[in-house]
TrEMBL record:
Name of the protein in question: JAB domain-containing protein
InterPro entries referenced in this protein's UniProt entry, alphabetically: MPN (IPR037518), RadC_JAB (IPR025657), UPF0758 (IPR001405), UPF0758_CS (IPR020891)
Protease in keyword set: yes
The organism's place on the tree of life at top rank: Bacteria
Sorted UniProt keywords: Hydrolase, Metal-binding, Metalloprotease, Protease, Zinc
Keyword Protease: yes
Domain MPN, first and last residues per copy: 27-152
Length: 152
């Protein structure tokens, strides 16, 4: 029999990752703690290989309520669908969120595209009443915080 449904339901599923400590996800209120969370969820084997983009979502106490890999890219660029990012936050009932991507080249300097993307994410968050706390750029050895550097 042919499926006659006219729409698909999108569901969030919650899975506990036993390798992750609950304490690492409580009161994540500065860039150093955000970097630590991103590094715990990141596929570290690809950090120097290709760009990826992740998001972590927070409640009002800045406890992590969810995280998601949003996209994988190429060697030096990545395409982000902001609708996917924001819908993930809405499904988690997040009030705040942070995003991160890596630079396989090892440079910590944000590109013009990185800055433009951050502005678009802030605008989308404002519309949905979700605050972007930070945009982190990761390299193997260090990180760059848009918040700490005054870019947010």
């Amino acid at each position: 029999m042919k499926n006659r449904s006219i729409a698909n339901e999108l569901r969030v599923s919650y899975h506990r990752n036993e390798k992750l400590s609950v304490e690492d996800f409580k009161t994540v209120n500065n860039s150093k703690l955000m970097e630590k969370v991103f590094r715990k969820i990141w596929n570290s084997e690809e950090l120097d290989v290709r760009e990826s983009f992740y998001a972590i979502f927070f409640n009002n106490r800045l406890d992590v309520v969810g995280y998601r890999k949003i996209a994988d890219g190429g060697l030096d660029s990545i395409m982000i669908d902001i609708r996917l990012l924001m819908s993930s936050g809405l499904l988690c009932n997040a009030l705040r969120f942070a995003v991160a991507h890596n630079h396989p080249s090892g440079t910590l300097r944000p590109s013009g595209a990185d800055k433009a993307l951050t502005r678009k994410i802030i605008e989308a968050g404002n519309i949905l009443n979700m605050e972007l706390l930070d945009h982190i750029i990761l390299t193997t050895d260090s990180y760059y915080s848009f918040r700490d550097e005054g870019d947010i």
